[in-house]
Amino acid sequence: MRGLFLAALLAAAPFAQAEVALVGAMKEKALLSVNGGPPRTFAVGASLPDGSKLVAVTSSSATIEEKGQRYTVRLGEFAAASAPGGGGSMVLSPDSNGHYSVAGEINGFPVNMLLDTGASLVAIPAPLARKFGIDYRTKGRRAFTQTAAGLAEVWIVKLDRIRVGEFEFANVEATINEAGLPVILLGNSVLKRLDMKTESGMLTLTKRF
Length: 209
Prior knowledge:
Blueprint: E1 5-6, E2 20-26, E3 29-34, E4 40-43, E5 53-57, E6 61-66, E7 69-74, E8 89-92, E9 101-106, E10 109-115, E11 122-125, H1 126-131, H2 136-139, E12 141-147, E13 150-164, E14 167-177, E15 184-186, H3 188-191, E16 194-199, E17 202-207
Parallel strand pairs: 10-15, 11-14
Antiparallel strand pairs: 1-2, 2-3, 3-4, 5-6, 6-7, 8-17, 9-10, 9-13, 12-13, 13-14, 16-17
């Protein structure tokens, strides 16, 4: 099936009771599982079994409308979920290597982050930091971190805002690495604010503060 992008995720809107999993996406159609049911293909404009409606599809997401409000289900990431009055949770599925990634934003820029409980802080490659407008050499604090290759120079900065799925955090410490991995690591300066529970391979994150 040309244009089909497969992934597994669970999602529910902050205002909705249903769980919608985006299993695949193609032009004007999405392969969805609703409330744990078998995946079915829905065209844009179709009603889902829970009464919501599929209103848009991209290669990596589907937009659902329920009771006049909309939320986005993304491939490989649980966007947000909470019953009315609840605290909200996010469920992530692992990649082929058993790692968990989540989409979000740093200072308003869309990013994808790899969860790393071994990282003390959020770690950002220097080229991306410059793209985000982070003047780390002027405003950051120079430090050193231990890596497999030895000591590496980093700069410690404060991020104005970071969004993880639908969770937002302000004034988060991060390191900027000029010689590190070319990926953003979501470290414990954010993860310590979340409760994490793994069950059947799925990682559930719940915001603590």
